[in-house]
Amino acid sequence: MPSKKLDFKTGQYVVYPTQGVGRLARTEEQVIAGQKIQMLVIDFEKSRMTLRVPLERAEISGLRPLTSAKKMDEAIASAKGKAGAKRMIWARRAAQYEENINSGDPMKLAEVVRDLQRRTATDTMPFSARRLYMRALERMAQEFAVLHKMEVEEASEKIEDILGIPKEIDLNAVEEDEEEEFVETPEE
Question: Is the pTM higher than 0.90?
């Protein structure tokens, strides 16, 4: 089966499945085991990491250009759907969600967001589920942010707004109108 040759340009945003969105800084030639190898150098600003991927292995590694805005919209629309009925133990579901997150595929990320999102403001989530949800949402938001020229945090909020995810309620918050002042009165 012939594989298509991926064509990347310096300065282009790309998605590396296990790391998210990075910018292709440059290509360089390195000598490894006596062979000259063309390397793509990718900078991940948020995690302050630089990754070198051999050009010949770019497609196999899952490196890809950003998805189109249309495909991102389709992924977000699929995240609006009803959560998939998963009848398996949490450890297996969590492993599946982890695999979906590390795939870097917007549709698989949307599936994790869909299945783990809170449906009401009072819903609580176990720590491990919350962590998976936040990782999937951040990966989607990274790509969404670049596509729509905004910050990642803003993109996360925008995606949650589109999905209709309720804001968390701060149970410790007290409205000023409800706050009562307690004044000690001297005993007589």
Answer: no
